[in-house]
């Protein structure tokens, strides 16, 4: 007897309704026939998609848990329709030692209600070899924190790591060129106008950093993935070089004039771009990946000055409804949704058992109700964050159930 059957499911790109048989956390059957199981979930003709994956979250655990932790962050992920998250290494301590990586794995194993993978920070070659015993899903480089010299050494070490261990060579990068950011920030440091933050870290710094990271990755035979791509020019460079990348919802839906409405609440790195320089919903194609860069801070940290407020926007609980609203407006093809939220990230991050509803794959699912209307209310969110530029926005379309390895972690069908 099957553990579970999910019945009356619409599948993207297929006609009619399907019943999905699940056993021991794996998909066993996909059929229009009736199935018997110990548990039956009727999703009432809503859409069943392969469990969404967010490759870019900051759950702040350990060390920064006033902002978020793995329990609140993973509940926010489940509530937002995500079955899997990939967490970033800029916690305290940095996740760039065997000890720190092991500690975070133990914390997440205890607290996370969704699947999690961890990106590692770079370190000297010996320490990175030790970390490989714990199999981080990739290494992360914050280009905005490095000099040209330190970047040469980091990428060379990663290249040697790939030659000498099982490391697959995947490196995710935050692309802003430190020298341009320092120079422009110096010029604007006395400004009290939040929009100047977008000129202190101009789109040219992202364009130059993307070019530089492509050269460094190619020279060291590494596979590059670009985080929170926000500049239109940089997108064209990435596409020309066949480099995978992520879009955040804030860069896709807001331009830097949002600073005039939301002030430092929309301060984030890279910053929101001028309207004519930014990526847009219409730039999403079959290779795009949505990575929210869910980066919560406390209200107090967000309400300091233009250059002293903390950069980062929490987006796990708004991104799916924001993009489904674009589908309902006719600005985004429904057939891209499973690819940009699940399939493409599974491919880039080598999650071979995820990203598709097929026999043998993990029983991770996201259920979407394309007609569910509502208005975002931050006071109902699971994240610790108490701010979002999207608070109060109306939406049409929402995640209504999240299933992880055959277990329901969020149900609002
Ligand atoms: N994106 C941000 O503005 N902030 C991120 C760091 C990062 O992703 O660069 C954070 O961890 O707060
Ligand atoms: Zn970043
Ligand atoms: Zn980030």
UniProtKB/TrEMBL annotation:
Pathway noted in the entry: Pyrimidine metabolism; UMP biosynthesis via de novo pathway; (S)-dihydroorotate from bicarbonate: step 3/3
Reaction(s) catalysed (UniProt annotation): (S)-dihydroorotate + H2O = N-carbamoyl-L-aspartate + H(+)
This enzyme's EC code(s): 3.5.2.3
N6-carboxylysine sites (modified residues): 140
Cofactors named for this entry: Zn(2+)
SUPFAM superfamilies, per database record: Composite domain of metallo-dependent hydrolases, Metallo-dependent hydrolases
Residues holding Zn(2+) 1: 56, 58, 140, 293
One of the record's GO molecular function terms: allantoinase activity
Any Gene Ontology CC annotation: cytoplasm
Cofactor note as given: Binds 2 Zn(2+) ions per subunit.
Coiled coil: none
Positions contributing to substrate binding: 58-60, 90, 297, 311-312
Active site: 293
Keywords, in A-Z order: Hydrolase, Metal-binding, Pyrimidine biosynthesis, Zinc
Gene Ontology terms describing biological process: 'de novo' UMP biosynthetic process; purine nucleobase catabolic process
Domain Amidohydrolase-related intervals: 48-409
Binding site for Zn(2+) 2: 140, 174, 228
Family: Belongs to the metallo-dependent hydrolases superfamily. DHOase family. Class I DHOase subfamily.
Function in brief: Catalyzes the reversible cyclization of carbamoyl aspartate to dihydroorotate.
NCBIfam families: pyrC_multi
Protein name: Dihydroorotase
């Amino acid at each position: 007897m099957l553990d579970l059957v999910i019945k009356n499911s619409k599948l993207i790109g297929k006609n009619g309704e399907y019943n999905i048989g699940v056993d021991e956390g794996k998909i066993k059957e996909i059929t229009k026939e009736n199935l018997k199981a110990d548990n039956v979930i009727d999703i009432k003709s809503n859409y069943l998609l392969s469990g969404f994956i967010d490759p870019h979250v900051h759950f702040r655990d350990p060390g920064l848990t006033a902002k978020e932790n793995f329990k609140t962050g993973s509940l926010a992920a489940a509530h937002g329709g995500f079955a899997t998250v990939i967490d970033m290494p800029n916690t305290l301590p940095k996740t760039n030692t065997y000890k720190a990586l092991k500690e975070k794995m133990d914390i997440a194993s205890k607290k996370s209600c969704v699947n999690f993978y961890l990106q590692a920070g770079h370190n000297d070659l010996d320490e990175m070899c030790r970390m490989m015993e714990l199999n981080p899903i990739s290494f992360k480089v914050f280009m905005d924190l490095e000099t040209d010299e330190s970047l040469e050494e980091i990428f060379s070490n990663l290249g040697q790591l790939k030659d000498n261990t099982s490391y697959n060579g995947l490196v995710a990068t935050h692309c802003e060129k430190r020298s341009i950011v320092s120079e422009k920030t110096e010029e604007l440091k006395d400004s009290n106008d939040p929009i100047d933050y977008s000129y202190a870290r101009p789109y040219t710094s992202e364009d130059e950093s993307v070019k530089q990271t492509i050269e460094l990755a190619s020279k060291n035979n590494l596979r590059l993935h670009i985080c929170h791509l926000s500049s239109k020019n940089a997108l064209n460079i990435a596409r020309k070089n066949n480099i995978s990348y992520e879009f955040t919802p804030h860069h896709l839906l807001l331009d830097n004039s949002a600073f005039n409405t939301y002030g430092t609440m929309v301060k984030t790195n890279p910053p929101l771009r001028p309207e004519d320089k930014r990526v847009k919903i219409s730039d999403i194609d079959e290779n795009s990946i949505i990575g929210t860069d869910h980066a919560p801070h406390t209200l107090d940290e967000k309400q300091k000055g233009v250059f002293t407020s903390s950069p980062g926007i929490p987006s796990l609980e708004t991104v799916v409804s924001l993009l489904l609203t674009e589908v309902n407006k006719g600005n985004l093809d429904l057939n891209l949704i499973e690819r940009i939220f699940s399939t493409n990230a599974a491919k880039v991050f080598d999650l071979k058992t995820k990203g598709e509803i097929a026999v043998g794959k993990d029983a991770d699912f996201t259920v979407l109700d394309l007609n569910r209307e509502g208005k975002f209310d931050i006071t109902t969110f699971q994240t610790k964050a108490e701010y979002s530029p999207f608070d109060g926005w109306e939406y049409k379309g929402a995640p209504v159930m999240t299933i992880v390895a055959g277990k329901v972690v969020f149900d609002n069908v």
